[in-house]
Each structure stands twice: as C-alpha cells, then as structure tokens.
Amino acid sequence: MTTKTPRLTPQQFEELGKDLDALRQRLLDDLGEEDRKYIYDVVKVQRALEVAGRGLLMASSFPPAWIAGTAALSLSKIIDNMEIGHNVMHGQYDWMRDPAMNSKMFEWDNVAPGENWKHSHNYIHHTYTNILGKDRDIGYGVLRMDEGQRWNPYYLGNPAYAFALMVFFEWGVMLHDLEVDNLRTGRKKWSETAGVRRRMWHKGLKQVLKDYVLFPALTGPQFVATATANATANLVRNIWAFSIIFCGHFPTGVESFTEDETKDETRGEWYFRQMLGSANISGSPLFHIMTGNLSHQIEHHLFPDIPARRYPQIAGEVRAICEKYGLPYNTGGLTKQLSSVAAKIVKLALPDRFWRKPSNPGTRNVKEGRALRVA
Question: Which GO terms fall under biological process for this protein (predicted)?
Fold first, then answer.
C-alpha cells in the first residue's frame, strides 16, 4: 500500500529541520521551576498511592481492602513505569542536577534493568526508529509487525505471541536485550551477553523477592493475598504499557524505512522519519499523564529528552508543521489505534498472498520522493 506522503525537496528537508530545531531550543530555554515542581508532584502521588496500597493490603482478608489496595498499587506501578521511569531514564530531568532524577542513577519498579533498557530503547530504537533491520523494537524479535519482515510459518502464532508479550511485558522488555534472534542466527555470540545477563539476573531476582517475598511477608497472615495483589498490579501495568507503546508505534499509517533510504540522513530527514514512524493517542489530560505522555508519541520521538509534560503544549505546533509540509499527523482514540494494531497483528500472521494485492508497488525511496511502506 502506498502513501500520499508528499515529495520533499532537499531545501524543504533543511527547512523542516530548522523549524523543529527552533522549537526544541525554545523548549530547552524555557525549562525551569514548573517542570521541576511537576515531576516532584508526580513522584509524591506515585509514592502516596504505593503507601496507600501497601497499607490497605495489611487488611487484604477483607475483599474491599484487597481490591482498593490492588487498584492503588496498579496505579502506582503505571505512574512509576510511564511518567516517571521512562521519562527520567530518557534524561528529561538531568538538567535538575538531582541524583534521584538523574538518568544514569534512576532504577524503575520492574524486572528490566535500566542500563540495558537505555541501550536498546534510548539508543537503538530512538536512533533507528522504524528502520527495518536496525530498529529491534519492530516486532521485538518475536512478532511480525511490518510487511517488510519476510513471512514464515512461525508467524502463524503472531496473535498468541502478542498476547503473551502483553501479559508478561516487563519480562519481554528484560529479555529483549539478550537479542535472542541474533543469537539464534549467529550474528551475536552468547559470550557477548555476559554483562546483559548479569544485570538481568541481579535486577530480576531483586524485583521478584521484593514483590513476592518481602512485601507479602510484611503483611504476615496476608502473605498470599498480598503476593496475589502484587501479581495483579504487575499484570495491569504490563497490559497498559503494552497497549500504549504498541498504539504509538504500530497502528495503520505508521511508516517504515529501509537502511538504503536512510543512508547519509540529514537532520531534517531524521525528523521526517520520526514523525512518520510514530502515532498519537487522543485523550484527556489525566489519560496523557497515565501514559507518561507517550500518547504524544510523535512529539516524544522528535524530542525524547524534553520533559514529556511539554508534549501536549507543543502538539498543536507540531501538527501545524506537519500541515505546512503536507505530512500526515497520525492520531486517534485509544480504541481506534488499538483495534488497528490488533488487526495488523492478525493480518501479518498470514502469508502475504492472503492480503497483499499483486499491484502493490512496494517500498520507494524517501529522498527521491517515492512512497514509503506503511507498517
């Protein structure tokens, strides 16, 4: 399927880069006390929810207390993962010079080691966004999420793999850094993963002991109920994080690129790829906070190290820049984007002959104004 993405001249790419660089600099110049207060307030809310949840679980033999405690704990884990952990580890608050908010020192409340994640996500994914063969987040080494991935019978299980990844998402993110697909094909040696495996083992064991031994033990006779509440909260967080992340990267209209297309990429062309390789989710201010503002995935991919609370503020300007150059601004409600992702997962499970039209012209080069593949 081809797109209507217009042909941009080298001059337009240069102007696009300048427009977005100017917007980025204006944001950097404006960072200050409001941003500092915001992240501290979010941390206070997250900690209050965790304390409330832990306190309620002390009486978890009383069903309403278990439900309320589990709900508070679920919200706490979502906020820690999305609005605090993800954004702090992107370096969005390094300028504050607060060790607790420093990307090199922060560790989030799940089994994926921050150091491993920062390499696979901050560096690989955000540098090579939607470049087939370079961005390992396309399918996470498990799924077929792009037409450019060659089909084989393994992908018949696409829906089942997606469901398993959703349920165990924090573990999937942890194992992602092993690059099992590269180990299987011989592109990477097992010995090269020693550091990654050591960090995985240390963080995973520590998190399991915390969630399923230490905190349950503190509730004494409520041990089993507390362990079950922790497992439920982790499940809720996993499903939420999976849904938001997949809606930001894989709905209909998000475009992918080849290595040849992005060779010798200019700043403007990099911005172009980020805008076309991402999608937004519309919603309320509270919804955006609960997504870590990754509901503004386009803005995040443009400016990953700018505090995410700024994304809603600049969304209108980014959309106007898209309109200026005739570029699409992919956005829609959660139901729309999620159903689009689900349909793609099912479609790409099947051999190409079941859905690809014979007249499909395929991928065409960005720099020559030829159409892109729609992921």
Answer: lipid metabolic process
Task: Answer for the pair 309, 293: CB distance below 8 angstroms, yes or no.
Answer: yes
Q: Report yes or no on 116 lying in a domain.
A: yes
- Reference 125, options 286, 240, 294; nearest CA is 294
The per-residue DSSP string of 201-222 comes to HHHHHHHHHIIIIIHHHHTGGG
* Structure tokens given for 293: 């503002």
Q: 216-274 pLDDT, tens per residue?
A: 999 999 999 999 999 999 999 999 999 999 999 999 999 999 999 899 999 999 999 99
364 lies in a domain? no
Domain assignment present for 156: yes
| DSSP type of residue 257 | B
Q: Is 5 helix (H, G, I), strand (E, B) or coil?
A: coil
Neighbours of 203 (CB within 10 A): 21
pLDDT digits (tens, 9 = 90+) for 261-291: 899 999 999 999 999 999 999 999 999 999 9
Residues 6+ apart with CB under 8 A from 257: 130, 131, 132, 273, 277, 366, 372, 373
Query: How much of the chain exceeds pLDDT 70, in percent?
Result: 94
Structure tokens at 219: 């509730």
Q: Which residues, at least 6 apart from 37, have a Cβ–Cβ distance to it below 8 Å?
A: none
As for how many domains the chain has, the answer is 1
Q: How far apart, in Å, are the Cα atoms of 336 and each of 167, 252, 274, 282, 283?
A: 21, 10, 21, 10, 12
Residue 38 within a domain: yes
Residue range of the domain that includes 134: 10-352
Place of tokens 């989710």: 281
Structure-token match 């999937």, residue found = 172
Task: Tokens for 275, please give them.
Answer: 């805008």
Q: For the segment 27-41, what is each residue's pLDDT rounded down to a tens digit?
A: 999 999 999 999 999
More confident residue, 43 or 179: 43
Write down the pTM of the prediction: 0.92
Compute the distance between CA of residue 297 and CA of residue 274 in angstroms, rounded to an integer: 9
